[in-house]
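Re-run with default settings, no changes from the original entry. Doing this only to confirm the output is reproducible before filing.
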Amino acid sequence: MSAALLTDTPLAGRVAVVSGASSGIGAATATRLAELGAKVAVLARRKDKLDALAETIRTGGGTAIAVPVDVTDREAVQAAARQVTDQLGPVDLVFNNAGVQLVSPITDLRQDDWQRQIDLNVTGVMNVIGAFVPHLIAAAEAGKPADLITTSSIAATRILEKFSVYSGTKAYISQLTRLLRVELGRKNVRVATIEPGMVDTELPDHVTDPDASKLMADLIEQIDVLQSADIAETVAFMAAVPRHVNLTEITILPTAQAI
């Protein structure tokens, strides 16, 4: 069954940035935002995948540009923000989605994995916020909808063994969203987070711990897990509601997922 519920082009006139757009949730969301009328800039490190995605969007009648960037590089993200504005116009919708999941027991002391998750899931998220919040404030001041939507996870609140560092980074995102809304909400910038459960993406492929890998593989095999298109439609809906409405925290689970 198709995840598409929205019709027409409720996002016409908007300029969206999607980070982590080379695959999975990011790619699906960029595609859906473009279908609904937004001009879209897709950001990620893998240039070949970004170029292919942008071309697919354009072939489908949408507007998209590929902006290869490592979001952990603050200056590169600032430069990407300038490029997007020059080519598409002022940004008013940011889907801050880049992230990585590397699960292992804390006693394994995989400190490189810990740091990689902190760099991407926390520092990368903050770099995108730092680059685009001024754009969102300006859009809101001009009377337009302005959205900052960040991908967290149910791991932010669930107690999952071996997920300590990943869960910590996602808890940071969920709490950050609540705090940013206090500051930016009064400026009419909507700040929200989406916390998915099990989604059939390439993210679990990065997990090397056999127990965690088995948990995820079993879920995918045993239940009807979420698809990237489900998350994309949810993000699109969050951006399409009237500007005085802020869907601040959306937890989205497969119906049959028990944990």
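The helical segments are 24-35, 47-59, 74-88, 111-141, 164-185, 210-222, 228-240. The mean pLDDT is 93.
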